[in-house]
Amino acid sequence: MTDFSALLQPDRGQPARDIHVVHPGDFAAWLAQQPERIRTAVAANKVTGRAGDRAILPGEAATDWAMLLVCDEPLESPWRIASLGGGLPEGTYRLAGGGATGAAGLGWLLAQHRFTRYRKVEPLPPRILLTTDVAAIDETVRIAAATARVRDLVDTGASDLGPAELEAEADALATAHGATVTVTRGDALATGYPMIHAVGQAAAKDRAPRLIELDWGDAAHPRVALVGKGVCFDSGGLDIKPSSGMRLMKKDMGGAAHALALAGLVMQARLPVRLHLLIPAVENAIAGNAFRPGDVLATRKGLTVENTNTDAEGRLILGDALTRAVEGAPDLLIDFATLTGAARVALGPDLPATFVQDDTLAADLLAAAAAVRDPLWRMPLWDGYDDMLKSDVADLVNAPDGGFAGAITAALFLRRFVPATLPWAHLDTFAWRPAGRPGRPKGGEAYGLRAAWALLKARFG
């Protein structure tokens, strides 16, 4: 992984090239104050003050130059100078006028991250950014590394990332931070976690289903449970997906990637909480022993579920994992899941559909998201749709007929496994960026990670 710590350094007055970031509305006034050589260079580069315009600005000496970027991103945006982080020549830079880089440091770092597991690429020359906000460097580096962890895990092909590999990721975190990992695998799931077992039982033996649990922290501290959907590949099961729908299903463990990354941030910062991380890890495969449409599944909670669609498997494994999390009586429960296409139809890739049954928690989470510019969108846990989960033969179905309100009914299904009094947030995230933007390449992406981390710091830091 990219050594982000080398790319964001304290500004102690060392030589560096200036980056002038000018808002389009301020461009004319800025240009009028510049010497003739600057105005000439700006004109030669046909810079007119539109957002995205840029130019090399000559200095007084032949080898001296600076960079101009016309940008309409606010000061609080992590992506304000991300377009430069991956494109400038090797060297050391600072924002013109000195001072702190603020949130822009994160985009600068992430613009220099590459996923290189499957191809040889020329290493990027290091572009170092200087900042006077020395206290923020470590935090910015940690968040960049956590984001890169999500991206790398989601970008990894399913042949190289199955349930065992997710377990190895949890083991590595535990080793680094003095946590403990407990894993329930294979047929041992049949009695304690029957829905996880049912979904994963058709996979090959080396990709056996499992519930991975990590515990860390002082038992006297508030208990925080993080749950991440870990479907390492989703064929759709016997309700098989078309090839176009299966193409990106390596990313169906994106919820687990988010939960792992967030757990890492908690432990790195030594946040005073008792952390309980849970990842139900499966492959939804097809074989003679695959679970079937019409099967009635037992659950850890004691409810029965009529399986009406084997491609609605994520909510099944999460139901057992949420039940286990609730048994620990957490003060806060957050789950991440690439759960429904309906959420993407409603909100697109950038906005995780966010379901929260506690208004105070919802307000705090949305405020945290706004503060760090990691947007979320609250969706309703609409009681009127609970009837859609009714079954003629069991306590509930996993996927109602008709397809209406798919993201909401999936969240309502999960709600059946969480007490009404427990502060709980469910993030239905895409975990994938379909088109690249500065600092955010096409591929695996962390959505809601920084928002959730800001919430945890505000509540427990």
TrEMBL record:
Molecular-function annotations in GO: manganese ion binding; metalloaminopeptidase activity
Species of the source: Sphingomonas endophytica
GO biological process: proteolysis
Similarity section: Belongs to the peptidase M17 family.
Keyword line: Aminopeptidase, Hydrolase, Manganese, Protease
PROSITE patterns per the UniProt record, alphabetical: CYTOSOL_AP (PS00631)
Pfam families in the cross-refs: Peptidase_M17 (PF00883), Peptidase_M17_N_1 (PF21337)
GO CC, any one term: cytoplasm
Superkingdom classification of source: Bacteria
Domain Cytosol aminopeptidase: 309-316
Protein name: Cytosol aminopeptidase
